Amino acid sequence: MFELTKEETEISRSQIATLKQGENIKYLPYAFTEHGILMLSAVLKSQKAISISIQIIDIFVKLRKAILDNNEILIALSKLDRRTDNNTKNIEIVFRYLDELIDKQETTKPRTKIGYKLPKNN
Questions:
Q1: Helices 34-43 and 47-107: angle between axes, nearest 10 degrees
Q2: Cα–Cα distance between 38 and 33 in angstroms, integer?
Q3: Measured in Å, how far apart are the chain's first and last C-alpha atoms?
Q4: Contact at 8 Å (CB) between 53 and 41?
Q5: CA dist 87 → 25, 81, 101 (Å)
């Protein structure tokens, strides 16, 4: 069990609407860790306490799974982002080369023809 910080308390109270936001907080509440819930369920022997502690442990398991799933999604997105960055850089290089080719074509002077020249007909 540990005591919540003032910021954590304000966040949790605004979520469960026990105290209007901004009102004076008289005490900082305590919260249980997953292991604390296990220890508590070993001490409390009533059927209701046991079922509630099992539900809380299930919630901790689901939270851990959700966090791991989100991490896997974030890792996959990061890999995809790196691939996209490489593609973007390659596309920028291609466009830069195309711009250089267009500039080169605009600046080149027409070549003088060599070889046999036909007289112009008027």
A1: 170
A2: 9
A3: 105
A4: yes
A5: 53, 10, 21
pLDDT digits (tens, 9 = 90+) for 73-114: 878 878 887 777 777 788 888 888 888 887 777 776 777 777
The rounded distance, in Å, linking the Cα atoms of 82 and 94 is: 19
Query: Are 10 and 25 a contacting pair, CB within 8 Å?
Result: yes
- Token pair of 19 as six digits: 């105290």
**Domain positions in the chain:** 1-31, 45-105
CA 85/CA 69 separation, integer angstroms: 24
Task: Tell me if 2 sits within 8 A of 29, measured CB to CB.
Answer: no
Supply 68's token pair.
Answer: 């791991």
Three-state SS for 108?
coil
pTM for the predicted model, two decimal places:
0.39
